[in-house]
Design brief:
Distance between the termini: 35 Å
Number of helices: 4
Order of helices and strands: HHEEEEEHEEEEEEEEEH
Number of strands: 14
Mean pLDDT: 88
Helix content: 10-25%
Structural class: alpha+beta
Length: 209
C-alpha cells in the first residue's frame, strides 16, 4: 500500500475499535468496512514490467476510453474507476523534462474536455528514442493529484511516479510514428500493458515527438 493511504485506513480503523469497545457493532462494522476498502484502494501490487526502449507501457490501470491524433501526436486516455489500482507508472524510461500542475474543475473524467478544464498534472518524459507526455487528470470525485517526482529526475520504465486519489483519468500523448497496440474498451494494467511501439523502421533512426 502507498504511504498516502495510511491516514485513510488508520482513522476509520481506530474509530471502529473504539465503537467496538462500546459494543456498537453496526457502526464498528461499517467503519471497519471503510478501512478495508481504503486499504484495497491504495494497494500497490507488484508489476512485471516488460523491457525495451521502443515501447510505451500504460501509465495506469483502467479502461481505454479514447484514442485520437492531432498535430501534437497520438493520444490514449485511460479511465480509472474507484476499484482500479491508482498508482501511476512511467510509460517510458527517461528524464522528467517538465512537470506542470494546472488547477481546474472536476467534471467527469470521461468527458472529452476533461483534459482541458479539469485539475491536472503533466509530466514530459524524454527517453532515448522518444518523448512522451503523461497527464494525470482529476475526476468528479478525485480529491488530489499526487506526483513524487520533479524536473530533472530519472524514471525507469514502469517506475511509480504518483497517484490520483479516487476515480480519475490518465492521458498519454505520444509521437505520431508510434504504433498504437490497444483499442477503445480494452482493459490495461499500469506498468505492464504495452500501449504503443516504435515501428522497426524508426528504431535505427531518430524518433521525434
Amino acid at each position: 500500500m502507498v504511504k498516502e493511504g495510511f491516514p485513510y485506513v488508520l482513522v476509520p480503523a481506530v474509530f471502529a475499535l473504539l465503537f467496538a469497545y462500546f459494543q456498537l457493532w453496526a457502526v464498528a462494522g461499517l467503519l471497519a468496512a471503510v478501512a478495508g476498502f481504503m486499504a484495497f484502494f491504495f494497494r500497490d501490487p507488484y508489476r512485471d514490467v516488460p523491457e525495451g526502449d521502443d515501447i510505451i507501457v500504460s501509465a495506469a490501470d483502467g479502461k481505454v476510453t479514447r484514442i485520437s491524433e492531432d498535430e501534437k501526436g497520438k493520444l490514449v486516455s485511460v479511465f480509472l474507476s474507484p476499484f482500479d489500482v491508482h498508482v501511476n507508472r512511467s510509460p517510458i524510461a527517461g528524464i522528467v523534462e517538465r512537470v506542470e500542475f494546472i488547477p481546474g474543475r472536476k467534471v467527469p473524467a470521461t468527458r472529452g474536455d476533461a483534459s482541458l478544464v479539469n485539475e491536472r498534472n503533466s509530466l514530459t518524459i524524454k527517453g532515448e528514442r522518444m518523448t512522451v507526455v503523461c497527464t494525470q487528470i482529476a475526476g468528479i470525485v478525485a480529491r488530489r493529484i499526487v506526483c513524487w517526482n520533479d524536473e530533472g529526475d530519472s524514471l525507469a520504465l514502469g517506475q511509480r511516479f504518483g497517484l490520483i486519489k479516487f476515480s480519475s483519468r490518465t492521458d498519454l500523448l505520444m509521437p505520431h510514428q508510434i504504433e498504437i497496440l490497444v483499442k477503445v474498451g480494452d482493459r490495461v494494467v499500469g506498468g505492464e500493458t504495452i500501449i504503443g511501439r516504435l515501428p522497426r523502421s524508426e528504431i535505427n533512426g531518430t524518433a521525434g515527438t
